[in-house]
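Escalated from tier 1: magnesium ion holo job.
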Amino acid sequence: KAKESGKNNYQFYAEGMNASAVNFLLLENDLRRAIEQDQLTLFYQPQFDLQTDSLVGMEALVRWQHPERGLVSPAHFIPLAEETGLIVQLSEWVLRRACEQQKTWLKSGRYAGKVAVNLSPRQFRQANFPERVAEILADTGLPATHLELEITESSAMEHASETINMMNVLNQMGISLAIDDFGTGYSSLAYLKRFPIHKLKIDRSFICDVATNQNDAAIAKSIINLAHNMSLNVVAEGVEYDNQAKWLRERGCDQVQGFFYAKPMSAEQIEQHLVHGGFESDNNVVHLELA
Ligand code: C2E
Ligand code: MG
Ligand code: MG
Ligand code: MG
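Tier 2 regenerated the structure:
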């Protein structure tokens, strides 16, 4: 009976309505069980250098393989995990799994880029977070230089001075830091210059119409210039069409991530691409088809 109502309540939540306290507890149990019973899985989305088309990184994106609902998007359960505090446990699992996988790829000699992992604000405010990361790196044997951590602009800015302290420690460990969804938060440039970061990721909302909308183009161009003037790399997210890629390449954007190049995929799928000649030939096929 409880299971049945749990399922209904899940749908209730997924439709974007406010969950009652009871629903919330049921969902929390569902998610707790998901973590314990290995129902979570990581997908990886490749990132490419725009000038050379070479694979430079992959972003790890969590999925919930729900026994009844199939693959559930993180957009549905990350907010719940944040509110219940389960995010800390979930994020540790993600970080460990991503580091293990990256270490395996490094060992095979097939891929030598970085793996990027999303951080939740709550996790980032844990005082012992750098120690937890160091432990995971030591356990998995992954060199820190192959790990990138992403934090959204809005959560970085919300607790800016704590963020700076935390980032300094992580930076000293050799980890790369990226600001995610850049342009959607309320950035203070005074703080931005104090973050020891390596990368800005231009939010997908500005990329969508970048080749056709003057305002989006102006914003994207400004972010590219800002990043370069601060000696940062800049990545465009959500590149879905050839004309967006072309526009970004012509303006000197460093990297791209998006469905035009590759969708997020399972480790097995990534593996197949790495074994069978990489991703570049794939892109050529797409370009030829569009030409
Ligand atoms: P994000 O970090 O900004 O990740 C990019 C999202 O954009 C991913 O959605 C990805 O699938 C999607 N995307 C990539 N390219 C394209 C494109 O060309 N077109 C479109 N329409 N979408 C594209 P996803 O995987 O559903 O993740 C959504 C968000 O959930 C992420 O946004 C991130 O904030 C959060 N998230 C995912 N995994 C984790 C995690 O392990 N921990 C934490 N704390 N948050 C996570
Ligand atoms: Mg991200
Ligand atoms: Mg993003
Ligand atoms: Mg986003």
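Residues 87-108 form the longest helix (22 residues).
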